[in-house]
Specification:
The complex is a heterodimer of chains A (311) and B (100). Chain A has helices spanning 42-46, 105-119, 147-156, 189-199, 250-254, 265-281, 295-310; strands at residues 2-6, 9-13, 33-37, 53-60, 63-71, 75-80, 84-89, 94-99, 123-132, 135-140, 160-163, 166-172, 175-179, 184-188, 204-207, 212-216, 224-234, 242-244, 284-289. Chain A has 311 residues and is α+β, with helices and mostly antiparallel strands. In chain A, strands 1-2-3-8-7-6-5-4 form an 8-stranded mixed beta sheet, with helices on one face. A 5-stranded mixed β-barrel of chain A has the order 9-10-17-13-12, surrounded by 4 helices. A 3-stranded antiparallel beta sheet of chain A has the order 14-16-15. In chain A, a hairpin with a 3-residue loop joins strand 5 and strand 6. Chain B has 100 residues and is an alpha+beta fold. Chain B is 47% helix and 19% strand. Chain B has helices spanning 3-7, 41-53, 56-67, 71-87, and strands at 11-12, 17-21, 26-30, 35-39, 92-93. In chain B, the strands form 2 sheets. Chain B has a 3-stranded antiparallel beta sheet. The chains are: A alpha+beta (311), B alpha+beta (100). The A-B interface holds A 246-251, 254, 263, 265, 268-269, 272-273, 275-276, 279 and B 16, 18, 20-25, 27, 29, 31-32, 34, 36, 38.
């Protein structure tokens, strides 16, 4: 068994589950979540399909890409046909995995563990985050706007990666705490080529991919105080790249959730509370993604802006 | 239903409805349905008074005081506001009129 932590969870991974992108050691509070391989036929035997309710489905045309169902006395069943199935216990303290492909770990780290974190009372956002000098900045925005590319170039500019794509934020006595997630970056081939050429040794290829290559990068393995949030938006007429947002649209914060599957009242209430706290205590900025301004240039401006903010 | 009749009623915000204020908006969340509703600044103010007092007439008085709205306009707006919240099941008629 190996001990890791990610998304605010302390994790115990059964022998044979290799998740090198997850920070090692027990760096999160609370009892651990046990991650293990399910025995053959176990998930079907345990899952009470007749009492389950589907809470989310993602399809491309007619093809099912992802489904989540909830059974009140059992937990959540996450199904990603291309990668596997995962049964998350109702209190989030166990994830039983039924792999269906070689790179099934991707589904564990990107979907199953964030779902377990939500079940355990944590709140994941669809955001990337990096750390400069012990302070975290987060980048959120719609898919395809370049959160990962921006995070990559911020790492190139000297930051440590805290998480890519899934950021768990938790209130604490000093403000807000940002938790580390998976410490590897998955980049499209064109972007991968650019960062390798620009930053060389800071990006260590881990795994090639058909669409995206995976890189180990300097990362922050401990939670860090969240000091700013940058909300990406494409195209604008404003001459500024970065604008402070005095009145953050709450829909934009609520819409940045990573988890649409858990709709229990406690969770919805918690999410609204956290979004209110984000809006009240966190400096939030609009980051305009304009044609002709690449991620490298944008990252340089964000790095300068954040350093000035936290100086 | 006339404005006068709804302004004479009493309302409560049920336990399954929560609301949180943001800088320029109040978000109302129905925990039973998972539905979100947005209110502008004045709407958020009216909901706050209604949640605290249950009395639409008090909401009218406070809107007149806080925003300088003409009384007739405030009565119409508050009646319409309460009707809308009722239709969305974000408030309920009080089972027993307080103090009566």
């Amino acid at each position: 068994m190996s001990t890791h932590h990610a998304f605010g969870l302390s994790l115990e991974l059964e022998e044979g589950i290799e998740a090198g992108e997850l920070p090692e050691g027990s760096g999160a509070a609370g009892p651990p979540t046990h991650v293990r391989l399910a025995a053959q036929g176990e998930l079907d035997a345990r899952w009470p399909a007749e009492r389950a309710r589907t809470t989310r489905e993602v399809r491309e045309a007619e093809r099912l890409l992802l489904a989540v169902a909830r059974a009140p006395d059992c937990g959540y069943l996450l199904t990603i046909p291309a990668l596997g199935r995962f049964l998350i216990s109702i209190d989030g303290d166990e994830v039983a995995c039924e792999p269906a492909a070689q790179d099934w770990i991707r589904a564990l780290t990107a979907q199953a563990l964030p779902l377990a974190a939500t079940v355990r009372g944590l709140e994941p956002f669809h955001a990337s985050a990096v750390v400069f000098d012990g302070s975290a900045l987060a980048i959120a925005g719609a898919g395809g706007l370049g959160k990962t590319s921006l995070a990559a170039h911020l790492v190139g500019a000297g930051a440590e990666l805290l998480t890519d794509d899934v950021l768990v934020v938790e209130p604490d006595e000093d403000g807000l705490r940002a938790h580390p997630g998976a410490g590897w970056l998955r980049l499209r081939s064109a972007e991968a080529g650019r960062v390798l050429a620009l930053y060389g040794g800071r990006f260590q290829p881990v795994r090639p991919g058909d669409e995206r290559a995976q890189f180990a990068v300097p990362s922050c393995d401990e939670h860090a105080p969240l000091r700013a949030l940058y909300l990406l938006r494409r195209g604008t007429t404003t001459p500024l790249d970065i604008e402070p947002l005095e009145a953050v649209p709450p829909a934009e914060l609520l819409g940045a959730t990573y988890n649409l599957s858990v709709r229990e009242p406690d969770r919805l209430n918690r999410q609204l509370d956290l979004c209110q706290r984000l809006a009240r205590v966190l400096p939030i900025f609009r980051l305009h993604v304009r044609p002709g301004v690449g991620a490298e240039s944008l990252a340089s401006r964000v790095a300068d802006h954040f350093r000035a903010l936290t100086a | 239903m006339s404005a006068d009749s709804i302004l004479d009623e009493r309302f409560v915000v049920p336990d399954h409805v929560v609301h949180r204020s943001f800088a320029a908006e109040t978000v109302v969340l129905n925990l039973e349905t998972g539905g979100y509703h947005g209110l502008n600044e004045v709407g958020g103010f009216m909901l706050g008074v209604l949640a605290a007092t249950g009395d639409p007439g008090e909401v009218v008085r406070r809107v007149v005081t806080e925003y300088g709205a003409p009384l007739d306009r405030a009565r119409t707006d508050v009646a319409s506001f309460c009707t809308d919240l009722l239709e969305r099941r974000l408030i309920e008629r009080a089972k027993r009129l307080p103090g009566r």
